[in-house]
Each structure stands twice: as C-alpha cells, then as structure tokens.
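Demo today. Your pick:
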Amino acid sequence: MIILETLSCVSCLEYKVVDLTHNHGKDSIYWPTHSGYERYIDQRGLFDGTDIWVASNTIKTTEHLGTHLDAPQHFNEFSWTTHQIPIENLVGPGVIVNVKSKVVSNADYTVTKADLDEWEDQYGKIPEGAIVLMNSGWHDRYPNKTRVFNTQNPNDTTSFHFPSWGKDAVSWLLAHRSIHVLGVDVPSLDYGQSKDFPVHILISQENIQNVGYLDKIPESGTIISCAAMKIVDGSGSPVRVFALIPKNSDTNNARKYNCSLFLLLCSLVSFKMLNQ
C-alpha cells in the first residue's frame, strides 16, 4: 500500500522515472580482487505437495558488484558503515559533467576544475546536495570487462586505463560546494593507472558504482536517488538508482533520452563526516 501511494505521489508531481540500475547477476562488473555473484535455487515449483507455486533463491555476492554503494568505511576505518548512512544523503539534484570529447584521445583523462567551470557557465552554480556525475561515454563498454577496464587482462589491475575524477577538481568541490554524490562512468573514482587512490581518500565517504543508462537523463534538472540496502556493518551494498525528470522540463540542454548503456561509479560525500 505504501508503494502504491508513493508511486501515486510521483505521478502527481509529473515526474518521469528513469531506472539507472544495471541488472545484478553473473555478468555484473566487479573489481577483480573481490568475489563475484552466485545464485542458488531454494524453491522453484509447487510447495509441499500443494498446488501453490513458490520461488525462492539464495544469493552470494560481494557488496561491491554491479550497481552498488561503497559505504564510508570502505576507505575510512572510522567512518560510517552501510546501515549508518542517513537516507537524506542518498538523494540530490543531478549534475552531469560531460567530458566525452576529452577522453577520445586520452583514456587516462581526469576531470578538471575547468570542466566544472564549463558546467556552471551553462547551468549555474552546482546546487547544494547535488549528485555530481562524470559522463565520459564509457557506457557502450558495459558489461565487457576487457573494454570496461580497457585492457586485454582485466584481472591485472596495473594494466587498467580509464578516465575518472582529478584530485584538484574534487578538492575544489569539497572546499567550495556542498554535494552529496560524486560519480563516474568507469570502474573507479580514481583513473585506471592510479596507484594511491587520492580521490577515494579525499572523500572516503559513500560511493555508488556501475549505474546504467545515464545518457537517458539531462545534464541538469533531475533528482537522483540511490536506494541502498541497510546492511548492518556493511562496507557497501547493491543499490537501485533512479532519476526523476519533470515531464515538462526543457531537454534541449540535455544529452537527450537515448538508450546507451552506462557504467557509473559514484561517491556520496557527507560534509558532516568530513567535519568530524
């Protein structure tokens, strides 16, 4: 009943709901040092001699597989675990920073402060509580591991080549803007050849990875929600990520609603935690 009422409210507000979540299964992308995904059938058929159909499965999965969230503790021993993340930190205005043209000749490109300036010149100041995502056009590579990690050996992390956020740009965001989420369309918040993960360490908060279909939403004017499981003492969680787009919004400044598949990694930033 609550679900029906919630959907009714969304309809009342005249929002289009766009699912940004990849299927969670055996083909989902995950970091090669983590475990993958397994599913076991507990029940599939008529229940206990009756004519009642019942289906039930058990799944075994790393928290960091497919569309998922990294809790603050993933890169910060003294930060929140998954169940401690305030729900309001998982929602915010969508900000999509498009750097597709810049990664064509440089697979190791990192987003700069100038890229953020370009977005603000077009759309205005990054709103408070924003979910800021990099769009590098990596979406058509998912779920091919060789193409996503941009290497012939996706089990060798030293061979990875993909773009991501630059340390200086993230430092500026943390100092001058109050955002909730930082994200990319690649397997890590740090570019493929990074050895010391400076962006992860800078924010060391919640981050959400492997979101799909980002090209379906505008670069400004949406609300994005990242609904994580409330796993006690978790270092992360699978998530259902979706965007709300006003049905009467002007999409002339958007990337339009094409159907490209998109790999995204996001990092949720909590200034409350940064100030502790």
Summary: Helices lie at 2-12, 100-103, 113-123, 145-148, 167-176, 198-203, 271-274. The mean pLDDT is 83.
